[in-house]
């Protein structure tokens, strides 16, 4: 039984462009660079929702065995792939696109010497502005963001005078950012000193109120190349005490409140006024004191975007109520992992989105991002526990 997205990336961006989800190898901006195979692994997830849009993908996420598992789950890969295996080969793909005047949709901007402005479908200056954490208060409706202030790195004394702990510090930069290294939860003066030292080279630093979270949603909208604003849905975010992302719950049974979705729609409307085209994922919280506040904007494909677009098809084809999206690092050997996946897929419990199979002898782990389906959260948590015992971490 086929599993199809409500909307494909070709529907959103147009079929004449190429999606390049790979970050630059150069370590450009505020993005972790210590895990090359993880960045390669992440090129696999958009395959499930690309439609007719060509996608740049690492060779280790499109091995025949990986694609067999996706096909078994009813997920189709795009008809056109631009495959790379290392830094030099992706540079070759990028340069070929530039020479042929084929514009790319980029998740995180590249250094200008790697991709000049003419190589982008969405202008890099616009992407930089929208994703700069200092811009949040200009894009989010008044009253729906925490107390916050952007300061220069030289203004630490001012922050100490005007703010009481705890609070959050964030880099405010036009450079690529993400992965958690650009945000610091500060409980003590030592936390502040450490974060300030790490962020001192940022253009600005945002000081932000630490809010008490009731629910945390990734609310996603898209503006299509035809100008239509479309709601993709909302995924409840699972985070650690340190704020690290651990996955998402997705269900019609526990949908985000209408007021939360309205805030997200207004954010996308503001981005559309600036001619943005594409997906936006907004971290919008309901707080224990009754507020609805947005704490982060990600104008790009988000980790849970494929799961949201596939949600309706999976729920209707399985007659389940809840989905869990998450990523695992696999300690088991490949054959055991493959057979476990096959059984779970045949039971309609597992829908793989990206599977990274390392080369023999490569110093890297097998990874999978996938959706688990169940009648209740408890059922899915029980399945998670079983997978943990099999080396899914």
The CATH superfamily title of the domain at 148-209: ATP-grasp fold, A domain
Mean pLDDT: 96
Kindly estimate the percentage of residues that lie in beta strands according to DSSP.
25-35%
Strand order of the largest sheet: 13-12-9-10-11-14-16-15
How would you describe this structure to a colleague?
By secondary structure, this protein is of the alpha+beta class. The chain has a domain of 62 residues: 2-Layer Sandwich (Dna Ligase, domain 1), CATH 3.30.1490.20. It is built from twelve helices and 16 strands. The longest helix is centred in the last third of the chain and has 15 residues.
Offer a quick outline of the entry.
This protein is α+β, with helices and mostly antiparallel strands. Helix content is 30%, strand content 26%. The protein has a domain at 148-209: ATP-grasp fold, A domain (Dna Ligase, domain 1), CATH 3.30.1490.
List the helices and strands and how they pair.
Blueprint: H1 9-13, E1 18-20, H2 36-41, E2 55-58, H3 64-72, E3 81-84, H4 87-99, E4 104-106, H5 124-131, H6 136-139, E5 148-151, H7 156-162, E6 167-172, E7 183-186, H8 189-199, E8 204-209, E9 213-223, E10 229-239, E11 245-250, H9 258-272, E12 278-287, E13 292-298, H10 305-318, E14 322-330, H11 334-346, E15 350-356, E16 366-374, H12 377-389
Parallel strand pairs: 1-4, 2-3
Antiparallel strand pairs: 5-8, 6-7, 6-8, 9-10, 9-12, 10-11, 11-14, 12-13, 14-16, 15-16
